[in-house]
Amino acid sequence: MKIAVLDDYQNVVKSLDCFKLLEGHEVQVFNETYTDVDTLAEQLVDFEALVLIRERTVICQALLAKLPKLKLISQTGKVSNHIDLSSVMTMGWLLQRASARPSRLRS
């Protein structure tokens, strides 16, 4: 699966224990936030899954309509007001929210 991890400002995701779970998948980590829908869509068009760091990127219907390969959105926090939930459900995609337990850094 081709997975995009968005908004990893501190470039820390790859050092978390949980990142090992993504072995065997093609993962790209984005350290910047793109606010323009067209620019964001260009970056994400080929991805099947998005991993969102908190509520940093707005996932709106206009963006979702431009991501034909998307199957799954994973949210690291419990807040999801930045995600157009009705569009996600209408399009039949999965939305997964992480547990409250933090992952540890690998040494």
From TrEMBL:
The record's SUPFAM superfamilies line, in alphabetical order, gives:
Formate/glycerate dehydrogenase catalytic domain-like
Q: Which Gene3D superfamilies match?
A: NAD(P)-binding Rossmann-like Domain
User: From which residue to which does any coiled coil extend?
Assistant: none
Q: Does the keyword Oxidoreductase apply?
A: yes
One Gene Ontology molecular-function label? oxidoreductase activity, acting on the CH-OH group of donors, NAD or NADP as acceptor
Q: Which keywords belong to this entry?
A: NAD, Oxidoreductase
Q: Which InterPro entries match?
A: D-2-hydroxyacid_DH, D-isomer_2_OHA_DH_cat_dom
Query: Start and end of every D-isomer specific 2-hydroxyacid dehydrogenase catalytic domain?
Result: 11-89
Tell me the PANTHER family matching this sequence: D-ISOMER SPECIFIC 2-HYDROXYACID DEHYDROGENASE FAMILY PROTEIN (AFU_ORTHOLOGUE AFUA_6G10090)
Q: Which family does it belong to?
A: Belongs to the D-isomer specific 2-hydroxyacid dehydrogenase family.
Query: What's this protein's name?
Result: D-isomer specific 2-hydroxyacid dehydrogenase, catalytic domain protein
What organism is the protein native to?
Nitrincola nitratireducens
Native organism taxonomy: Bacteria, Pseudomonadati, Pseudomonadota, Gammaproteobacteria, Oceanospirillales
